[in-house]
Design a protein that fits this description.
The chain is an alpha+beta fold. The chain has helices at 18-28, 83-95; strands at 10-15, 32-36, 40-45, 48-54, 64-67, 70-73, 76-81, 100-107, 115-121, 127-133. This is Glyoxalase.
């Protein structure tokens, strides 16, 4: 069977409170809600399906690694946005007084792979990274 469009990813992750997950992913990030039950909620993460599963025992602080002098959560997920969408999201999150793990900033300025990035935690402690590349052709640049 031939694939005619870019594949979408599906990610399931633990949360400790579905109401707080709905407020964060739905209200703050603007993800439309799909199907749900008493123990999980689907969200449209810019065309990708993410599912918050109620599993408070699975929510724990993640290990971290040093990346460019920043303490990056090892376990994280996120999206690569276009530059303008990244700037808009950074402004919206800052306006909402979001606490960032890593404040919005630009890495590799003027070099191949120049990218804007920011890290934040959802209410259950899951780490998210949102990034944008100055030139999308450099996503895998070395």
């Amino acid at each position: 069977m031939a694939q005619t469009r870019q594949p979408r990813f599906h990610l399931a992750f633990p949360v400790d409170d579905l109401a707080r997950a709905r407020a964060f992913y739905g209200d703050l990030l603007g993800c439309a809600e799909g199907r749900s039950s008493d123990t999980w909620v689907d969200f449209d993460f810019l065309g990708h399906q993410i599912v918050a599963h109620l599993a408070p025992e699975e929510c724990a602080a993640a290990a971290r690694n040093d990346v460019d002098g920043h303490d990056v959560p090892v376990r994280h997920f996120g999206l690569i946005l276009d530059w303008t969408a990244w700037e808009d999201l950074a402004a919206r999150l800052t306006q909402a007084s979001t606490t960032f793990v890593i404040e919005p900033y630009v890495r590799f300025a003027g070099q191949p792979g120049e990218q804007a990035t920011m890290f934040l935690l959802d209410p259950a402690g899951n780490a998210l990274e949102f990034k944008a590349f100055r030139d999308e052709a450099d996503i895998f640049a070395k």
